[in-house]
Amino acid sequence: MSRLHIGCHLSSSKGLEEMAKTATAIGADTFQFFTRNPRGSKAKTLNEEDAAALLRYCEKNGFAPVLVHAPYTLNPCAERPEVAEFARIVMKEDLGRLETMGVRLYNLHPGSHVGQGTEIGITKTASLLNELLDDGFTGTVLLETMSGQGSEIGGTFEELRELIDRVDRKTSVGVCLDTCHVFAAGYDIAKDPDGVLTTFDRVIGLERLRFVHLNDSRFGLGMHKDRHAPIGGGEIGTEGIRRIVNHPALHDLPFCLETPHESMQEYAEEIALVQGLVQYDG
Predict the structure, then answer these.
(1) Catalytic residue at 109?
(2) Which of 18, 21, 19, 25 has the alpha carbon at shortest distance from 272?
(3) Which of 32, 55, 104, 185 is a good FRET partner for 65, with 20 to 30 A between their CA atoms?
(4) Residue 144 catalytic?
């Protein structure tokens, strides 16, 4: 490996270009951010000059692709009509903002069926994607691997594959692999990343894997609990993280930390820790 592209989640409250400068200051060359409050409130007016400055800065400084994350409150397969409509409105607006910003990746939790059943949940999420992914959208929606907590869909690779199969514009969808989530779902990425990624390739296809959320897990393998831990501070552990970041199938992908820290200094230290685990060429 020549270089690990890694960053963390950043706040866009001070502006888009400022986020990229913050990333550089903590040793990152990618990051993710919300277009609005993660609980789903109204988005701020987009400053197109700031968006252009973000792209120029990232290109000049050799950044890997950055990621926009959908608000946590979105449930694209909700049973209640008003909740489903909220997801539709926010996603439509967010995808339009991506086009204006020139950012190409949008991360989405596939949703929770809340008692309707997995089949209906997958059908509803696919239907919304088919509505929104039209010829005017040039980016990629990344479906995140989930922990299988509660009624979440996407807790197995097979569920994600079924969802992708139902999307008409398949070139517009990909996958973001969350290490905590897949571990919680029962895929032992800590001890057997090769086996997990081989299964992913067989079921979904590694060509669809576009981003990695690098998180340790507070709970054990297959417990279906979505609780992130700092790198080396959970059940995946430092050696598990070492195996993941050095796996050849992931070499060219951007990684983003979603670990529970309070300060940028803590993220800078964690980025340095992860970089220290990478076995570089030469």
Answers:
(1) yes
(2) 25
(3) 185
(4) yes
Q: Is the pTM of this model over 0.90?
A: yes
The single residue of 5, 9, 69, 208 carrying the catalytic annotation is 69
3-state helix, strand, coil in the chain (%, to 5): 40, 15, 45
Is residue 226 part of the annotated active site? The answer reads yes
The catalytically annotated residue of 79, 192, 201, 258 is 258
**265: exposed, middle or buried (C-beta count within 10 Å: 0-12, 13-18, 19+)?**
exposed
Q: Tell me the per-residue pLDDT of 88-130, one tens digit each, with 9 for 90 and over.
A: 999 999 999 999 899 999 999 999 999 999 999 999 999 999 9
- Tell me the pLDDT tens digit for each residue of 7-60: 999 998 889 999 999 999 999 999 999 988 777 678 888 899 999 999 999 999
228 is catalytic: yes
181 in catalytic set = yes
